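Thread: Newbie trying to understand structure tokens

Hi all, I'm a second-year student working on a class project, and my supervisor (Dr. K.) asked me to get a predicted structure for one chain before our next meeting. I've only ever worked with sequences, so writing a 3D structure as a token string is new to me. If someone could post the tokens and maybe explain what I'm looking at, I'd be very grateful. Here's the chain:
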Amino acid sequence: MPRTTPSLSALVILFCALTARAEPSAEHGRYLVEVAGCNDCHTTGYSMAPEQVPQSAWLTGDSLGWSGPWGTTYPSNLRLLLPKLSEEQWIRLARGASYRPPMPNRALHLMSEDDLRSIHRFVVQLGEAGQPAPAALPPGQEPNGPVVRFPAPPAP
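---
Reply by user tm_fold:
Sure, no problem. This is what the structure looks like when written as tokens:
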């Protein structure tokens, strides 16, 4: 009868551990939100001082606009949006994402279904908070509040 050596068994166990896919989880969703930079736009003040923004304030949108040839867009409050959607609805929304700049639509398209489920679980776990973001403005309409302009105006 063939015998498996302990080192071969250890290699098989290690391979299985390294290639196993984790189930979607809120914990993995938190990780993805951080590495994908979601807070940079969707959390007020995060891009300037991430260590100073508590998780309780994450993903509540921002009134800082992003203005360019497309008009002016505002980062949505994901804490109000995602709890209204089932995981399946969120996945369809993310897969079909075609939002105006600076939203990185491609990042959503490239995420696995499990990644998107994890993000949904994390945002829902955070709970609803904050107010809706300002409505987008069409090209030519001047925003009232602060904006980042694309392309930047020429230097004086």
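A couple of things are worth pointing out once you decode it. Residues 8-12, 14-19 have pLDDT under 50 and may be disordered. The first strand starts at residue 65 and ends at 68. Feel free to ask follow-ups in this thread.
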